Amino acid sequence: MDVAPHRLRDHERAAWEFHRATARWQFNASSSGGQQFTAGREDPDAPYLPLPAPARLPAGLSDAIAARASCRAFTDLPVTLAELSALLAAGYGVGGRSAGDGYTMDDRPVPSGGGLYPLEVSLLVRRVEGLAPGVHHFVPAVHGLELVREVSLPEAFVTYLFMGQHWVARAPVVFVVSFVPGRSLVKYGDRGYRYALLEAGHLVQNLNLAAVALGLGAVNLGGFYDDELAGLLRIDPETEICLYASACGWPAHPGERMASRALAESV
């Protein structure tokens, strides 16, 4: 019996309209241009903490790739600042600068359309040694953290934010990746939204592999209440969009892939 193909436009209209609206043909292939780019989100008045040198990642790339698996079962052990520093450096840090042909570029661990790097990384911190619990914002250029708000993050509240995914609230730290459209859509138009999604995937995969190399576990998250999470981060959801998140901590069952996934708890 022939099975009718699953037509996106018939079943998921919003996804279809997004895809077609950002498709390119010869008549609409030029960038929008003509607008000013949006600067970074740094707040010069926020309390600032320089991060220590990143902890060394002892595992090789092939070992990290082979060991990567979603981890939903975390212990209560805190993450150290050096470990957090390593995760942020691997995910979206600035490793140095390269110069040539009359310009300079930051050397960063993920590719970005036009070298614009329109993403921001915020942290929901519950248990990180030497770091106040609450919301922090990563400043890649100087490899440090700004304190957005010092506040307790109860498990019930974090579980609610992430749509009932209670294992998220047990992690010592949750990384939230957001997108500033004004930093790249002025160049690429609506197609830039696709580029941001791709870049967020690169960033979070780097976080995952760095976590595995350090012996940590991580689980990636696309389900959350957008406006409520933006409110906690103190960002305007009309100018900065939450895209992705990753909860990270020490696995309760190191080396046991199925136990770490805790699939029975995820349904």
CATH class: Alpha Beta
CATH superfamily: NADH Oxidase
Mean of residue pLDDT?
89
- Discrete helix count: 9
Shape: globular
Fraction in helix? 25-40%
Number of beta strands? 9
Total number of distinct structural domains: 1
Taking the sheet with the most strands, its summary is: 7 strands, antiparallel
As for the CATH topology, it is NADH Oxidase
Strand content of the residues, in percent? 15-25%
First-to-last CA distance: 33 Å
- Strand arrangement, major sheet: 1-6-5-4-7-9-8
- Give the H and E element order: HHEHHEEEEEHEHHEHEH
Class from helix and strand fractions: alpha+beta
Parts with pLDDT < 50 across at least 5 consecutive residues: none
Radius of gyration: 19 Å
Structure description:
Helix 3 (61-67) crosses helix 7 and helix 4 runs antiparallel to helix 7 (191-213). The chain has nine helices and nine strands. It has one domain (53-266): NADH Oxidase. It has helices at residues 8-11, 13-21, 61-67, 81-92, 155-161, 185-188, 191-213, 226-233, 257-261, and strands at residues 48-50, 96-100, 103-107, 119-125, 134-139, 144-150, 173-179, 217-221, 241-249. The chain has 267 residues and is an alpha+beta fold. The longest helix has 23 residues, at 191-213. Strand 4 (119-125) and strand 5 (134-139) form a beta hairpin. The chain has a seven-stranded antiparallel sheet, sandwiched between helices. The protein is globular. The mean pLDDT is 89.
